[in-house]
Every structure is written in C-alpha cells, then in structure tokens.
Design brief:
Helices cover 9% and strands 49% of the residues. By secondary structure, it is mainly beta. Residues 1-24 have low confidence and may be disordered.
Length: 365
C-alpha cells in the first residue's frame, strides 16, 4: 500500500513539474512589441462607412493607417466606430450603422462575431467584473427627450446581452467607481447612478446636460457640463462628483466646452492636470477649438489655453507614460484626419495623417 502511494506521489510530482516547465516555455500570444502603442479610432462618415483603426508606435514614431485591415486579411470595418475600449485581453469597438459590439484580441484581430442583438444606437462602454455596460439611445431616438434609451448589460465571455435597463435621457459617457456605474445623460439635466449590486438607479441633478467623465486619484469624478441645441445652458464647464455621497460638490465654469461626441476630456498621469476641449463655430460655420487646462490642486483653469486655433478639433488623449498629448482634428468625415503631438510644455513635435474623422484613441502596452 505504501509502495503504491509513493508511486502515485512520484507520478503526480513529475506531471506537475512537466506542466510547470511547459508553462514557462509557452510563448506570450500577445507580445508587447506587437501590441504596444496608441490606437486611433477613426469614425468615418455616418452610414457611409470609412471607419478604421490607426496604430501609432510612440517608441518609433511610426503611424500605420488601416491597421485593422492589415490584421484581418483586408476586411474593412462595416460599422462606424464610435468608441474603443480595452479590458483584460480584449478590445471592444462600439459600432454604429450597423449597430454592433465588435470584439478583437490585443493584436486587433477580430475574435468574436459582431454582436447586434439588443444593441440599438450604442454610444459608449465600460466594464466591471465579467460584464460590459453599454449606453444605447434605442431603436428610434427622438433627439429630444430620448424616452427609449437604455443600458445594455453584456456578458463578456458569452458574447451576449443578458439584460437591459431602461434609462430615458440619452445615456452617453460612463464611469465605474465605488461599486456604482455613473452615466452622463446628454438630453436631461441629471447624472444617473446605477448600483451594480442592486441594479437600481438614482440621480444627481446637474445645471446642464453632461457627456463624459474623468476620475481623479481618489475615484471621485469630473464630468463635462455642456450646452447643446436641444438642452441649452449657460452653466458649462466641469462638475465634481463625490462618489461616496453622490453629490455634485462643485461646478467650475468654462465657456464653450465641446459638445462633440469623442474624447473631449483627458487627465495626465499625476492626476494634476485635466485637459478639456472647447470649440465654437465662426460666422462661416467653421469649427475651431482649443485645449484648456484645469489644475486639480488649485481647482482653477489656466489663464491661457494649452493650444488654440485648431480647425476641426475632434478629440484629445494623454499618453500616461510621458504626458505627451495627442490632439485630433478633421476637416470632413470623408478625408484623412490629423493627429498632432505636443510635449507637456505645449511644443508641437509632429503631425500624422490618420483615418477619416478621428474621435479618440485607446492605449495598449
């Protein structure tokens, strides 16, 4: 009996050691040298296609346009891409016309069929645990009060929408903090707060409609307060939300905060500076904008913009490794857009052509 036990123990140990050695020898399926970079989301022209992903390798300074096609045998993106989001070993692309959620691996190879079920006019997504939450405007938006908008709860591994939650008011950007999902409403002067455990809504009243969030180092949230055609307001700027009390504690006024859909707000690595796009149309309906800087320590905006006079401004992101700024612009939805690169002191160092109508970027290491 003892001899049999010793034999079984030796066999078990040998299998364990063999498996351990094999694990050490396994190659990383997503090596950093192939994935590292900033990936520009080019929306294209609504309903007419032209969406793409451009990859910028900030170590070499090389921009590769239509990178998604290179990685997928020349296949084009059939949807206009509203937003790109990385979570664990997946990249999620929020697509419009046709409406879908596209799942890719870190190499930007599509890994699952695009999900269309219960996805109607999706806008934005954010993850918590095993779920992706997607803001949707609904099948037939009235572009006024948005009575049929909702949040879709998507099970990541299953590639299915498990449930939906009615949320009138046009949900746009979202953020997860303190066990809750905060949802900007672009057609109602409120922020919705969704308890992820109890799956119930509460609301924070705001002086203007909201669009996107940016967390600070404590998990509290800055939110953009914007003036829109359907919901005009003079109280534009930044709101500050305490996520423990769910109170809008402060409002910091700033004129002409961009009401475009894209990355209009971004934070530096130290959480000390918040960059906000402002924009306005001139008498000839040409869109010109600037990037304003909010100091989170002094709670004040700088007296001068970081950059200004950017024609067709459409998005901004900050590289959290070196605080380099990537600023996007587009003169049309069909021609090539631009990505301008600025050092932390505001010096312009390079300009790259990207795809049609860039609206933001996501990072992979």
């Amino acid at each position: 009996m003892k001899k049999n036990f010793k034999l079984m123990l030796m066999l078990f140990l040998s299998v364990f050691v063999f498996a351990s050695c094999n694990n050490e020898d396994e190659e990383d399926p997503f090596p950093g040298e192939l994935t590292q970079g900033y990936y520009v989301v080019n929306y294209g022209s609504y309903g007419k296609g032209g969406a793409s992903i451009s990859k910028y390798d900030y170590n070499t300074g090389v921009m590769t346009n239509f990178y998604n096609e290179q990685q997928n045998g020349g296949k084009e993106l059939l949807s206009n891409i509203q937003y790109g989001y990385t979570y664990r070993d997946s990249v999620f692309l929020v697509g419009n016309s046709p409406d879908q959620i596209i799942t890719m691996n870190p190499l930007m190879v599509q890994s699952k069929p695009g999900l269309t079920d219960k996805i109607a006019n999706p806008r934005f997504c954010v993850a918590s645990g095993e779920y992706l939450y997607i803001s949707c405007l609904g099948l037939n938006p009235d572009w006024n009060e948005m009575p049929d908008s909702y949040i879709a709860k998507y099970k990541i591994g299953a590639n299915t929408v498990e449930s939906t939650f009615d949320l009138p008011g046009g949900p746009e950007g979202m953020a997860v903090s303190n066990g809750k999902l905060y949802i900007a409403l672009n057609y109602k002067d409120s922020i919705a707060v969704f308890d992820l455990k109890n799956e119930t809504f509460a609301y924070i009243q705001t002086p203007a409609v909201t669009s996107y969030f940016q967390p600070d180092k404590t998990g509290n949230l800055y939110v953009t307060l914007v003036n829109t055609y359907n919901n005009p307001s003079t109280e534009t700027g930044l709101g500050y939300i305490n996520v423990k009390t769910d109170k809008l504690e402060e409002v910091f006024r700033l004129d002409n905060v961009s009401n475009s859909y894209g990355s209009i707000i971004s934070m530096n690595a130290a959480f000390s500076k918040l960059f906000v796009i402002t924009s306005a149309y001139d008498e000839n309906w040409n869109l010109t904008g600037a990037v304003e800087v909010f100091n989170t320590n002094s709670k004040t905006f700088s007296s001068e913009p970081f950059v200004s006079g950017i024609s067709g401004i459409s998005g901004v992101t900050i590289n959290k490794f070196d605080d380099t700024m990537y600023l996007f612009s587009a003169q049309s939805t069909t021609g090539a857009g631009q990505m301008k690169i600025y050092t932390p002191d505001g010096t312009s160092t390079a300009t790259h052509a990207v795809g049609a109508y860039p609206v933001g970027a996501f990072f992979q290491d």
